[in-house]
Amino acid sequence: MNAFTLLFIAFLALWSGMSFWLSKRQERHVAAHRQTVPQEFASRVSTEEHMKAADYTIARVRFGRVEFLLSVLLLVFWTFGGALDAIDRFWAGLALPGIVTGAAVITSVAFISAVLGLPASLYRTFVIEERFGFNRSDAATFWKDRLKGMLVISLTGVPLLFLLLWFMEAAARYWWLFGWAAFALFSVALNWAFPRFIAPLFNRFEPLEKGEVAERLKLLLERTGFRSDGIYVMDGSRRSSHGNAYFTGFGKTKRIVFFDTLLKQLKPAQIEAVLAHELGHFKRRHILKGMLLSLAMSFAGFALLAWLMQQGWFYTGLGVSEPSGYMALLLFVFVAPVFTFFIGPLMAWYSRRHEFEADAFAAGQADAASLASALVNLYRKNASTLTPDPLYSAFYDSHPPASIRIARLGSASS
Asked: Whose CA, among 138, 139, 166, 393, lies 20 to 30 Å from 319?
């Protein structure tokens, strides 16, 4: 057992302990406030709705602990349990070309991991979501989605994997620079292709019908000088009653998408305010900043991986007997979350800052009170808790707590 093994075990124990402690804090905090609606929401959220949100949150948190425990056990199985090493020895024994062996090992591990994750996905969809009245999917849709997802990964991720492995062999010392460049181009291309070629594989997208909502949104887009591929309605109700809206793509492929469920839940002025918020993300360059941050982090990750590939203790410390580029890549992907968990609050703070900026932009372009009422409506319909534990929220929630967000919008509308 080398020093890195001890370091990894220490971080794994700390990560696990923190995750379980935060999860229990969230459960206790939500349960303690289950029967009392916060005063600022008392006139808009019923006690029954608030209790449903609490029960839904607690159910998800409890199952999240089970999932997390299984993921930790699986990580130990892959590394110290020798599963990665066994799969590597099997494929290496076939004497295939190095790149083919590496791709076979990685795809085998990815496939096994996906299969092992299916029971959790089934339980979330057909037990938790079903119990609280959100699930509208059926078994056929569920399995079709998984098969389509595998097809997309095969057609996009596998070629990138072969390219990375080829760089490892051909470019030697500087492979990671070429690898990062390929990854960056792939990410940009995927963002460009997603709205037109990938998303339609899973959902139907129809242009927003003419009417009061379309006219309001058209005027808002003209006021803000925003041009896009169009405003589309997605048939989210095929799978869930949750409502949402988002931007996707960039350049000529960027488009605005509303879930059909959201359009049914909100009034025209509220829909306009929600779009103004989404436009705020674009106008404040949050999408670009997020992409640049992601590319910077991936650059650092590739550089670190290139160094770790040369360290024998990295492999032996995680239960792998034969060093190789593809095994280093696998190990890096597996252990990175253990060591990066503690930057969660920083990333959440950064995301919340963007949400506040988008809200402020929306308050200047639409009615702040309408955005506040829209958010409250979405909290109600999506059964989002109004009383999260502050520390848990600081680690996991990319959006500000409801009370803080609504209070700011209230100040903007007064």
From this structure: 166
Residue 413: predicted pLDDT? 61
Rounded CA-CA distance 354/359 in Å is: 9
Q: Are residues 125 and 14 part of one domain?
A: yes
* CATH code assigned at 381: 3.30.2010.10
Output the pLDDT for position 249: 73
Residue 245 and residue 265: Cα distance in Å, rounded?
12
Q: Give 255's strand partners.
A: 248
Q: Which amino acid is at 248?
A: T
Same domain, 144 and 257: no
- H helices of 197-343, where? 212-224, 260-265, 268-283, 286-308, 312-316, 325-340
Name which of 392, 400, 379, 396 is nearest 50 in CA terms. Answer: 379
Quote the domain boundaries for residue 220: 203-287+347-413
* Residue where the block lists tokens 């190990």: 331
- Identify whether 390 is part of a domain: yes
| 109 shares a domain with 22 | yes
pLDDT at position 101: 96
pLDDT attached to residue 131: 95
What's the pLDDT score for residue 398? 92
Cut 0.90: pTM above it: yes
Cα–Cα distance, 142 to 248 (Å, whole number) = 23
> Residue 366: which residues within 8 A CB-CB, separation 6 or more?
220, 269, 272, 273, 275, 276
Report yes or no on 274 lying in a domain.
Answer: yes
Q: What are the residue ranges in the chain where pLDDT is below 70? A: 251-253, 412-414
Same domain, 391 and 322: no
